[in-house]
Amino acid sequence: MTYITGTGLTSFGRHDGRSSLDLMSMAAQLALDDAGLTRRDIDGILCGYSTVSPHIMLATMFAEHFGIQPSYAHAVQVGGATGLAMVMLAHHLVEAGVVKHMLVVAGENRLTGQSRDVSIQALAQVGHPDYELPLGPTIPAYYGLVASRYMHEHGVTEQDLAEFAVLMRAHALDHPGAQFHEPITVAEVMASKPVARPLKLLDCCPVSDGGAAIIVSREPTGAIAVRVRGCAQAHTHQHVTAAPALSELGAEIAIAKAKSAAGVAIADINYAAVYDSFTITLCMLLEDLGLAGRGEAAARVRAGHFSRDGAVPLNTHGGLLSYGHCGVGGAMAHLSEAHLQMTERAGHRQVRDATLTLLHGDGGVLSSHVSMFWERVR
Ligand SMILES: CC(=O)CC(=O)SCCNC(=O)CCNC(=O)[C@H](O)C(C)(C)COP(=O)(O)OP(=O)(O)OC[C@H]1O[C@@H](n2cnc3c(N)ncnc32)[C@H](O)[C@@H]1OP(=O)(O)O
Q1: Which of 109, 153, 182, 240 is the most exposed place for a label (fewest CB within 10 A)?
Q2: Among 205, 320, 322, which is best to mutate for testing ligand 1, by the most ligand atoms less than 8 A from CB?
């Protein structure tokens, strides 16, 4: 059995003058304080990659920067699925007795640490270095292609996709750390500038600075204990040209294995933390994971199902779309918010009874998937 004992999350947006290591350290210290632990207690670290600081020795560089000498250190790289993949690895290593308190951390000054063009170029390389990058498309372009196909197959409209952006923005309004604080409407999403048809500016996550950290421990440290109940991964392709049909998605494989490992059904969950790099990502993943029928996720958003007071509150901090996206740390913000909600410390954002959470991460262009369940045990 392993427990999530602490989380740390910086604000996202601009952090002028702060490096990736600074942002990782800020989040790590917040997580230690949250868990009531000191740097000496941490015997293992896992860290996500940074496109701004692509150091070969990032894990040990971070350890030195943060002032710890762990007995275990590793950097992990499976795109947007990295945060949950690290928590899964931490879960197994802690359960096996290799590490007692694993610090899982990621952060990046993606917005202020590099130019817009370098940032977009670096992001394209994360997913598709060999064949697709030389041809020019960027990550929004790939998700645009996926969106066109999915909309054609399942009758999803651009207005439907806009609903996800509006929901994430509504949630971000309640979080002081979010990058965006202006409410938006479906009409405003529709009128925002085209990026990669059918995706418009407000269908896309932004580029952000920020950091996030999670501590996975052998024993709970707080009054309310949250444990990892079960998890699984699936990796179906790397290059988008090798992707299987949209009906055979990795998310479906990962969630089926995770449900079996955890012994739970989707109907049992009462909070969801789902990757949302673009509106189409969130739409498809909700449907792949079984949180809505095919082509029906937008209707569920309109009915309030995923709102803070709905049956399955979703990404109540605002998600990648509106809290912000600083690489691996962006997706880890979902985990931090889930932990706050499950331990009843989300303040005015608090939802009712977040006792069983489904967390899902997607890396590349729907290439790598990690599904996980967290359970409140006391
Ligand atoms: C890799 C994996 O494994 C999986 C993944 O995570 S996939 C996702 C990886 N991330 C991405 O692909 C980033 C996607 N986003 C982008 O590339 C860019 O934000 C974009 C192309 C959508 C827009 O960039 P741009 O056109 O250069 O806009 P830019 O000139 O930077 O900003 C113009 C304004 O729009 C705002 N803005 C930029 N992006 C925004 C967004 N996504 N949403 C809302 N506002 C945005 C800016 O804050 C700025 O506002 P101000 O004028 O008030 O300062």
Answers
A1: 182
A2: 205
Confidence at 126, pLDDT banded by 50, 70, 90? low
**In this model, does residue 247 exceed pLDDT 60?**
no
Length of the chain: 378
Closest Cα to atom 30 of ligand 1? 116
Token pair 């394209």: residue: 124
Q: What is the pTM of this model?
A: 0.97
What pLDDT was estimated at residue 317? Answer: 98
> pLDDT value at position 191?
98
Ligand 1: distance of its center to the CA of 206 in Å? 4
- Which range among 6-10, 21-25, 124-128, 299-303 shows the weakest confidence by mean pLDDT? 124-128
Looking from the CA of 374 toward its CB, the CA atoms found within 13 Å total 33
Which residues, judged by CB distance below 6 Å to any ligand atom, belong to the binding site of ligand 1? Answer: 79-80, 116, 120, 123, 126-127, 139-140, 195, 201-202, 204-207, 277, 325, 363-364
Residue 146: per-residue pLDDT: 92
Tell me what ipTM this predicted complex has: 0.96
Q: Across residues 315-335, what is the average pLDDT?
A: 97
- Residue 132 confidence (pLDDT): 66
Reported as a pLDDT band with limits 50, 70 and 90, residue 115 is: confident
204 CA to middle of ligand 1, Å?
A: 6
Closest CA to 338 of 95, 4, 1: 4
